[in-house]
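Archive entry: two folds, one per protein. Generate the first.
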Amino acid sequence: MPLIVLLRHGETQWARDNRFAGWGDTALSDAGKTEVEQAAKAIVRQGLTFQRCYTSRLLRARQTVEILQASKVQFEGQPIADWRLNERHYGALQGLTRSAVIEKHGNVQTVEWRRSFTETPPPLEPSDPRWHEQLQRFPDVDPKLQPAAESIRTAAERVSGVWEETILPDLRGGQNLLIVAHTSSIRGITRIIENLDDEQTAAFRIATSMPIIYDFAPDLATYKKSEMSTGTKGFIRQLANRFKPRGVARF
């Protein structure tokens, strides 16, 4: 039976600083690297191998894949890095701390930008240096396709394209897939697999470096979902992620 393992990258430097990341290219923290190593051990221990690895084109996801490879997680060929698996774009909030955004816009508005299915943060302006830096990192992607800000909904719609074009055909071919991405891109994939409604999609959470496994029937009509244990610290992260307060902006 084909399967998918979904893995969010490890903790980042900006997460430690409580900064909005989005398409900002923050690196993994030392703790994040350790998280990925533990996830890799869990995957290897379970004896999982993959025909394909998909990831985003952001640094934190690429670093996560590199650590997985160094830790003997096996997949064939080179990882496929698709910009459509990037994190949700947080527009003009990217790089700002949570406290700075709350101070300027208030906690209610900050929570709406973070948790509402349809609310979009202020976009990056064409004159913003962060926009120019983004275009330089993705010179092969049509600027008209690159977002300047996204809601949860538009980020999920972006992810649905790579699902239909490449991931789903691989599944139909009976391949085991490893997808290393971000909260919003994994949210978009989970929305499709589990047929989540808008409210369920907005409420979706996933802890860093905690593998989720979907085992599919050969016809892909049914699946079994499970979460892979990565030890005591991973279990604590998982619980903390599930019980985050909804009324306070989180990252």
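Generate the second and append.
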Amino acid sequence: MNRRNNFFLLFIFLLAIATLIVDWPQNPSNYLPGSFWPQSQGIHLLGFDRQGTRLGLDLQGGAFLLYRGDLSKLPPGADPDTAINGAVRVIQNRVNASGTSEATVQRSGTDRLIVELPGIRNVEEAKSLIGKTAQLDFREQTTVNGQQTWIPALGTAPDGTKKPFTGAYLTSADVTFDQVGKPQIAFQLNSEGGELFADITKRLTGKPLGIFLDDQQISAPNVQSAITGGKGVIQGSFTLESARDLAIQLSAGALPVPISVEEERTVDATLGSDSVHKSVVAGELALAIVAIFMIVYYRMLGVVAVAALFVYTLLVMAVFKLVPITLSLAGIAGFILSIGMAVDANILIFERMKEELRAGRTVGSAIDAGFNRAWPSIRDSNFSTLITCAILAFFGAKLGANIVSGFAITLGIGVLASMFSAIVVTRSFLHVVVGRRAVLNPALFGMPSAQPRLGAAGLQR
């Protein structure tokens, strides 16, 4: 038992250190007294990056957009659910590629999509990036009635048919720079697109090849030689930002269903940075009050509960940061509620332990019996809460109620962590006191009964 308990203690210690490193804020002076604390540079490990905790619209403000998909434009036999889900994926690709990693894109009902962009103030820029279809096509010049005009550039497909060359054959697009440092877009084609492009550039050698985006000419370079290998470059009067946006739109693909904006608004943060700081301080004070109550009422058991609660808090905050979970006011409320449930589990265990000690059990057997008898109550209450969280999260996501979903997700994570804290952390800490005469005074367990003694068979009256 000692070896097993030592293993768990080492595991808990290492877990606490790891989660503390993950949780450490970028500006610790905002939450801790003094200005001497080291700053966190975020987590950067093997391509995994986390800079800080995600904050929702109500904590840092941003843009809110509600789109509606025009399902009447779908071809016959197309599945509306597949089209809307495809639109969600395309929009996620676009906003994530633009660096808005905290964006939330989700369905609302059968044909609507909600896009939340925390930290974004320019709604028009967001709409331009999200809603553009980015239809790219290549054209060649011909003479019609004595005037030069652009017509679709046709290439010979592997089956011998003539097909227009469009952006549908692109598999990727990235921003690069030419020899003088001007932004350009390098693209990669699939196998059929590569053959079409090679045939067209071979035929148009020495002639211009027009590149059009949404019927607007963006470039018309002269073809120097046949381009093979399925690669090409789009050059034009690009700024770095416009080149990046075009590359995002091309690589993300066209939206599978037309969408239109039904609602748009810029959301101001309901809590400024100063209010967030005050909320954190209030949370710290609340934890301190809970800790004081547990220690005063349960004495040594309360010390154990506070230590377990500290590990629990570090663990939950680390999960929020690593997943990551977007914290809103509702999410913070769910987390605080889960703290109360974590303390509640400890109270059930401690009361059962005290009953066993009054019955004459040894401390070690009282710990095991207390956990075994309290576990059914802890399990059933937490499982019922988890079922409720799952229902709230499902219908919140289905109906677009982000506040409900955020509350349910954070509460559910907190409940799972509280079960781990009660069963593993608290139990391991309690076994540390076994066999230590200094803590066998019943007053240290909140028991004003007769002094127990440690005998050969255990505690005796």
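Annotation attached to the second fold: Confidence is low (pLDDT under 50) at residues 450-461. The longest helix spans residues 363-399.
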